[in-house]
Amino acid sequence: CRGRDPTCLSTGRRPDGSTGPCYCDQACARTLDCCHDYAQACPVIPCVVSQWSAWSGCTEPCKITYRVRMRNIIQEPRNGGEACPALEERAGCVEYWTRQGTECQQYLILALITTRGFGRARKKRAAADGNERTGYCVEFQLMAITPHCLHSHHSYTRWMRYLREGHAVCVECQHPALHSTSQHCYGDGTGSQKNQLLHWQAVGNHRCKGTWRRIRQLDTCSCPSVHSFLFI
């Protein structure tokens, strides 16, 4: 009997050797009151699912969204068999090109930032492979910040505590984030209107995010090191 059905009842031995009322429904495998021959008469049949499909594209261009992959149930579980696993998986992604094949406007793209200290390793790698290109810096005024930036306790997220509303910050664009064609970093706000609110997110803690206003572009960063960051 499928599920839990008290009418699938008999009297006899149970698998543990005791004698008394025993059941033939799927629930007996969890309640341990099956009849002694339940495993032979009703063998456990687990769920069987197909292979994952290919990943879809991002659900929307020009912003951080997600992509999806799916799988189907080939065989439903029976007789207390293991339940089916998740049939859908999502993964974060971002596409910098519209459906028409044109590059997204910079002010539409959410900026991904990390600590400027990460740039030292970047520059060493770039110098080693000869791909170093001249970058630039963009100065922003932080307008709104989620409380999660202050609650990042891992060593690699402590830099997020220096993000404060109203403060000016500098975000550096350098190789390899510097796009070879446009010579810009994605999310730097190029083309945005004066005082337009732009969105950013900290790498390492997706809940640490907020808005800022672009002030100006600089050839070099002039902010204190604790208020200087990198585009990813």
Automatic annotation (TrEMBL):
Keywords: Disulfide bond, Glycoprotein, Signal. Pfam families: SBSPON_C (PF25031), Somatomedin_B (PF01033), TSP1_spondin (PF19028). Coiled coil: none annotated. Residues 1-47 form the SMB domain. It comes from Dasyornis broadbenti (rufous bristle-bird). This is SBSPO protein. SUPFAM superfamilies: Somatomedin B domain, TSP-1 type 1 repeat.
